[in-house]
Amino acid sequence: MYSEPPPRKHSCQFTMATHFSKLPIVDLGGLQQTELSADTIDNLSRQLYNVFSTTGFAYLVNTPLSFTHEDIFGLTRELFTLPTNEKMRLAKKSFLPGHRNTYRGYFPVQPHLASDNLKEGFEIGNPAASYSAMAEGQKINLSEPNVWPSTSNFNGQEKLEQLYGELQAFASQLLSLLAVSLGKDTGYFAPWLDDSLSTLRLLHYPPSARNEQEHNPDNIKLSCTPHTDSGILTLLTQDSTGGLEVLNAAGDWVSAPYVPNSIVVNIGDLMARVSGGRFTATMHRVRRPSPKSAPEEEEEGEVGRFSVPFFFEPGEACVVVPVDGDAESVLYGEHVRKKMATFVEFQEDSGYDTGTTE
Ligand SMILES: O=C(O)CCC(=O)C(=O)O
Ligand SMILES: [Fe+2]
């Protein structure tokens, strides 16, 4: 679903992004037509082809989502301000072995595993998912029900499930346009989405400590190390904190600041591969949020950056065949399991002090 360690500068299995200095904006107002005209399909698929074969990243505006950024970050803040023991009740089995959820749920900040990957997260999949049988030796069940805080503590379940549904529908529309841009019919990739493993991930990056920043004014600190996403595409809602950076072909990190009402989109490894290298899965990273500007603000508690990526993914059993037919096909479940082995949020962390009684 997520990422991999940084390759050497300028080396990539696929097409590199070009020498961009800012990310393009694509206006998706045309998607509001009840039935898309051939002209709209042609126009939007060309624009998407252009951005995904150059920057691999873009801002989407006038999207079909009914949720505003305030709606999304209201829910996100509500979730992360729950008491630690309430959040740890949702922790994945790798953090609390008594729990059944292995793939969906909460992961805490793990400062002693990686100081440049400081984030806590909460992940949900398809609200209708149920447990699938796991092969022997497998520790993670890619298909399992979501876990939720008790309704007395958190009101957002229904809204987050609705957001998941809207993002899945929106990403499916984009996938139809990508099919057209690659010379296929709009429905070409539809079978990929049976039992789709898409993940909605709420993220919170705590700010760095005040003294840490003062002692190292020029030192770049990261909250998320350079990586490419591994699925079809990612739809990211970011708050106005800033910190997201995207690597161009010159090896420069280009900042992707907040654009009001936009969704950031980027291509994942799977789609780059399926496109035969026409699309690029561009490296990106997140800088650690700065400490608050005034000490008196600290009384309000730590804030930092919030972001909500939606990783759009095929089903576990999907055999993904590149459009040109000359590259090797891949079973999506195997692809995602291989990638996961390298991510900090999937590493065992028995040393975590949960503050819970479990
Ligand atoms: O928080 C962000 O802006 C980016 C997160 C990200 O790249 C990821 O989780 O794969
Ligand atoms: Fe990412």
Could you explain the architecture of this structure?
- GO terms for molecular function: metal ion binding; oxidoreductase activity.
- This is Fe2OG dioxygenase domain-containing protein.
- Pfam families: 2OG-FeII_Oxy, DIOX_N.
- Belongs to the iron/ascorbate-dependent oxidoreductase family.
- InterPro entries: DIOX_N, IPNS-like_FE2OG_OXY, IPNS-like_sf, Iron_ascorbate_oxido_reductase, Oxoglu/Fe-dep_dioxygenase_dom.
- Mean pLDDT is 88; it is low at 3-13 and 349-358.
- The two termini are 29 Å apart.
- An 8-stranded mixed β-sheet has the order 1-2-10-7-12-5-4-3. A 4-stranded antiparallel β-sheet has the order 6-11-8-9, with no helix packed on it. Strands 13-14 form a two-stranded antiparallel ribbon.
- It contains 7 helices and 14 strands.
- The protein has one domain: Jelly Rolls (Sandwich).
- It has helices at 38-52, 69-80, 84-88, 157-181, 210-215, 269-274, 332-340, and strands spanning 25-27, 57-61, 105-107, 120-124, 199-205, 222-227, 233-238, 244-247, 253-255, 263-267, 284-287, 305-312, 319-320, 330-331.
- By secondary structure, it is an alpha+beta fold.
- Helix 1 (38-52) packs across helix 4 (157-181).
- The structure holds 2-oxoglutaric acid (AKG) and fe (ii) ion.
